[in-house]
Records
---
Amino acid sequence: MTFDIGNLTLATFVDADVLVLYGKPYSKDQNYIEWKKNLKQVNIQLNKKMLPAVWNRVSVVLSPAAEQDLGYIEFSLLPNKLYLSRDLRKSAEED
């Protein structure tokens, strides 16, 4: 599965993890807490930089996952390190 993650910050994320929760879609006749407990979880370590202020393409393998198990997918980005390219306060002071 390939998707794009938007990095809305000015920081570059390095060695980030992506937490993927997936399962059957929620329906109103289900107990929400029980449905949430039954979602499958995969933690994927990214071996690439997540560049700032752009969409970053990521590919993951969710295995074993049948098509009916992909009705709901949730992604969370968990950065382990981040870097800022320069101090923007210095630029503002120079103006």
---
Amino acid sequence: MYQNQEFFSAKQSLRIDFGVTAEYLTPELPIALLVLILFFFGIVIAYLFSISTRFKAKRSIKKLNTMVASHNKEVSELRSEIDSIKGLVPQPENREG
């Protein structure tokens, strides 16, 4: 940043014109501060755009966890059923002789 100190310390104002209202001129600020402000503004916009995706992902995860729990319960029931059937059917003994 030392090489670009002159550039980043220069003051600049931004002109904002949405086409609907009169244009707005920001006060003159150092370019380094404008870069930081715009960087954080971009982070906020990216966060806002990702909210719906995160809510959908949370909903899907919750649904899948419920499905996994029901499948685990079903597997447990089937294993206990298999164990009870194995207990009812006598195992053949090996007879030598």
---
Amino acid sequence: MSDTMKFQPEKCWPGWADRRESERVPATGSFFYSPTVRDYDPRVAVEYNSAFAIDVSEGGACVETDQFVEEGYRIKLYSRMLGDAPVFGTVQWCRESGDLRYRIGISIP
């Protein structure tokens, strides 16, 4: 991929330093996530939000959604890209990307 096509967060957010240790790969597809992880209780409804993949790497993903999620939140992710089982991750950052949308950086151990 050429440098002109690669997402460059430093152009959107001055002072940004990419902390990812592995190469990011552009991705397409959808995610569903719960911004809070609870113990399973069938009597409690869990709200899931949708997000679109921006890119993925060995240790995480960047998704875009219409919900702000605070840094440090543990979330549960569902996506065909990640396999059949849910994956748990931690929000590393959340930045407004325009038009009431947010990009969320998620680390996935």
